[in-house]
Structures are given as structure tokens and as C-alpha cells.
Specification:
Layout lengths: L6 E6 L5 E6 L3 E6 L11 E2 L4 E6 L5 E6 L3 E6 L10 E2 L4 E6 L5 E6 L3 E6 L10 E2 L6 E6 L5 E6 L4 E5 L7 H12 L1 E3 L6 E3 L2 H14 L9
Antiparallel strand pairs: 1-2, 2-3, 3-4, 5-6, 6-7, 7-8, 9-10, 10-11, 11-12, 13-14, 14-15, 16-17
Length: 218
């Protein structure tokens, strides 16, 4: 079972019949665990080194992530992409399915963890950031799916309680800016502080859209 460069992660499928490998050659591959033969017509391709790979709990999907700032979900049967790339502003350091396979969690060098709908690829949380500007190195969802734990280069692990929301992605981005007091800069490598007027506009906009959740500005 060969790649062109170093293999950095491996995983068995839930039934033990298949293997997945992730490589710095920008690909992941699936193999027959008994024979070692490749199972797909071609590799699962990223635009940068692939740092990890895993199967969904039912074995029907494969999750890959890497240095091209994305996590990707593929059909384990055909190798076709099932979702648009799940994008961060830095390399994706870890990604995992929830226990029921309905959600995905990602950790990134852009100093955030995030939860996504595994059926649609839509974000279910704003970026969940550690203090300072560093990297979130690992992520996991609790067995009941109600909590997320993130690990960071700031020397902490943090637990986040996940609320159910049907907010659109752009409103989740606004909420993240409001809570963090900053937005990601144009170069995607810095945080731009928001002044009181900008924060007030964000608050008023979110309150107008979601009055049942967002109260009056303090």
C-alpha cells in the first residue's frame, strides 16, 4: 500500500474490511484490508498535504483534512465528494465525525474549532476560538453530541456547550465577530479589532434578525 510521500495517518473502517491512508503527497487512499489492493479508481485529492483520514460510524463516508485549509467528505464506495470543502483560514489540524455521523467537528491553525452539518456542509457554530492567536490542535464531540472539546497551542482545553440553531452561516459569522470583538483580516492571518460603533451595529443587526434570542444592546 504505497504513496509517493510519507504516510501520516491510517484508519480501519468500522467493519475492519477496509483501510484508509493519508499522505503528504496530497492524497488519501482506500485499500482492501485483506489483500492490500486499492479500492477506488483514483486517490482522494487535496491541494496540499493530507494530515488525517477517518471513516464515518456507518463506514459509508471518508473524512480527510489537511494543509489546504479544508476538511472534505467522500463516498467510501465511489470516491466522489459528497460535500463542498469545509473551509478554514489555516490548515486543518483535526476532524472527526460525531457518534451518530450527523455532524463533523474541525480544528484549525486559524485558532478555531467548528461544528458542521455532515449532510449539507453548513456550519452549525461560529468559529470557536481560544484566547490569543494560535492554533486549535484537536477536537472531539461528546457521545451525546451536546458538547465540543477543543485543544489549543495556548496550553488549554476548552469545553463548549452546543446549542441547536437554524441561524444561516452569515449570521453565525456575525455572532462570532460580536462575541470575539474582532473579525479576520483581509490577509486571513490577523484579527482586526472592532470598535464600539461596529459592535453596536452587529448587535442591532442580529437582534433585528433574531429577536427571540438576541436581547437589547447593553
Amino acid at each position: 500500500m504505497r504513496h509517493k510521500r510519507r504516510v501520516v495517518r491510517v484508519a480501519f473502517s468500522p467493519d475492519g474490511r477496509r483501510l484508509a491512508t493519508a499522505s503528504l503527497d496530497r492524497t488519501a487512499r482506500l485499500w482492501d484490508a485483506a489483500s492490500g489492493h486499492a479500492l477506488l479508481p483514483g486517490p482522494l485529492q487535496h491541494a496540499g498535504p493530507v494530515r488525517g483520514v477517518s471513516f464515518s460510524p456507518d463506514g459509508g463516508r471518508v473524512l480527510t483534512y489537511g494543509d489546504d485549509n479544508t476538511a472534505r467528505v467522500w463516498s467510501a464506495a465511489t470516491g466522489e465528494p459528497l460535500l463542498p470543502p469545509l473551509r478554514h483560514f489555516g490548515s486543518v489540524e483535526a476532524a472527526r465525525f460525531s457518534a451518530d455521523g450527523g455532524r463533523l467537528a474541525t480544528a484549525s491553525a486559524d485558532n478555531s474549532g467548528r461544528v458542521w452539518d455532515a449532510a449539507t456542509g453548513e456550519p452549525l457554530t461560529p468559529p470557536l476560538s481560544h484566547r490569543g492567536w494560535g492554533r486549535v490542535t484537536d477536537v472531539a464531540l461528546s457521545p451525546d453530541g451536546d458538547r465540543l472539546v477543543t485543544a489549543g497551542a495556548d496550553g488549554t482545553a476548552q469545553v463548549w456547550r452546543l446549542g441547536r440553531t437554524d441561524w444561516p452561516p452569515e449570521d453565525l459569522e456575525r455572532l462570532a465577530e460580536l462575541l470575539g470583538g474582532s473579525r479576520i483580516g483581509a490577509d486571513a492571518g490577523s484579527l482586526v479589532p472592532l470598535d464600539a460603533r461596529a459592535l453596536g451595529r452587529l448587535w442591532d443587526d442580529l437582534r433585528a434578525r433574531h429577536p427571540e434570542t438576541v436581547g437589547p444592546s447593553p
